[in-house]
Amino acid sequence: MNRETVQVLIVDDDQRFMDQLASDLTEEGFRTLSARDGSEAMRILAEQPVDVGLIDLSMPGMDGIELLKQAAKVAEEVPLIVITGHATVERAVQATRLGAYDLIEKPASFDRILSVIERAIEKKRLRQRNRWMAEDILNRYRMVGAGKAMQRIYQRLDQISAVDATVLITGETGTGKELAAMAIHLRSARADGPYVRVNCAAIPELLIESELFGYKKGAFTGASQDFIGRFRQADGGSLFLDEIADLSHAAQAKLLRCLQDHVITPLGSTDSYLIDVRVIAATNKNLMERVASRSFREDLYYRINVVELEMPRLVDRMEDLPELARHFLHQFCEQYNRYIEGFSSAALQLLMEQEWPGNVRQLRSVIERLALFAEGPLITAENVAAVLKRPPLTSSDQMKSYKQARCDFERDYIQRLLQICNGNVSEAADAMKIDRTNLYRKMKKLGISAPRLS
Fold this sequence. Notes:
Rossmann fold; Helicase, Ruva Protein, domain 3
């Protein structure tokens, strides 16, 4: 923390105390402002940047309680610390309910005051950083799509964000599991707290425990200093454990104890730390199969799977593809300073005909290449074919309407799925995650005859 940039407002009618505190803070490198009552403090809060306030409760005119009420309207983000020698229990409770960051009784040591100031400033900066992160995520990485599958996801996200339970996000690679985890954190009561991401698959097995739970200096070769670990970094917020299926058995056991007891013990330490962390886990693996093969603990599976969110494949939300493509194109045009108006209908048709095994992540990568290398005001079918390394559309294909292209895609998809399922309509409907009668309806509409089972 660079104290020279921190401005502290001291509000007290005791001039001697105020002058001494201002002098002590100045010696520590802080900048200070002073006010004798609440009215003067309000003028300063409205006109000058203030990082933290130290206020007395008992003052003539506008007292500290009224100042807390009024300051919330003009300087909501400024943490206000109450320092008073006349606080009753009722007044202290009232001050806390009005948003006072902390309450210090006079006489108080300067070290105590300094410690509370530093914690208040750190919390304010953390809150600002998370707000900026939230705005950046919402602007650059927002979830896109208004189809039925995504509408169900949005509804589910609202339900999950309202509770403070452990969440397991499942889905294929590239379906947006991390975006969903961010959305859960940013919509929850923990939004002002930290959001910490750990890719369990990217950390060597021997280091995953120390990464999660921390270690003491000298705990192992290379541990040259203490490390608090990701759980303590995420204290008060959310910890996103991506690819949780890749955790070792030893790490799984320690994670289970942590989730049960809310306590962690760093490697090489005898000290334990109580933590307040919401765990959001994600995997593209079938954890039940892992449980059956004994590579994943069953008790841990049920502990992390309190609430489950399954992200849909891109093929299951193809109605969102045009909007996704335009969203990514706009994003990359801004990033690379390009000007492209959009896609031709034939270009969108060709994109709609792809299978997209890499889901939205693969689509995003394709649109990035198109934004970089396409020429002209519109991305054409030839541009798309070149990036996808496919033959360009014929002239008859280019005359198809978007509706016709979608029907052709659905017909080809269902016919191939029925072949894979050996003509079993019920099995095909399960794979599509739709009702069998709905599939029969689609088959009739698209002119697909019901297969004869041998």
